[in-house]
Design goal:
Blueprint: H1 9-56, H2 66-85
Helix pairs in contact: 1-2
């Protein structure tokens, strides 16, 4: 890594402005990316809340036959796979 060395005084401001413009361009692209991610996180949260609502219907399930339990277990595992396939939801709304 090179040390920062002084430049001629007459070039300092011009070089600084070039550096600042390049930095601003990078940070603007970064900001746009993260703004787009917020939309993705919110959509993922909506999808996960729908999965929770689906799963809530199983809370009162009762059966006397193993076949019925196996069927419900498969349905629950399918919901779990859908949950795992979905990327994480937005952290701040928890």
């Amino acid at each position: 890594m090179q040390a920062h060395r002084p430049v001629p005084r007459e070039d300092q401001e011009k070089l600084w402005q070039r550096f600042k413009a390049a930095s601003d361009a990078v940070y603007d692209r970064r900001k746009d990316f993260y703004e787009g991610q917020k939309e993705v996180y919110l959509q993922n949260q909506v999808e996960k809340e729908a999965l929770i609502a689906q799963l809530a219907t199983f809370a009162d399930f009762k059966a006397d036959r193993i076949k019925d339990w196996n069927t419900k277990t498969k349905e629950i595992l399918d919901i779990q796979k859908a949950w795992e396939k979905n990327r994480p939801g937005h952290q701040r709304s928890r």
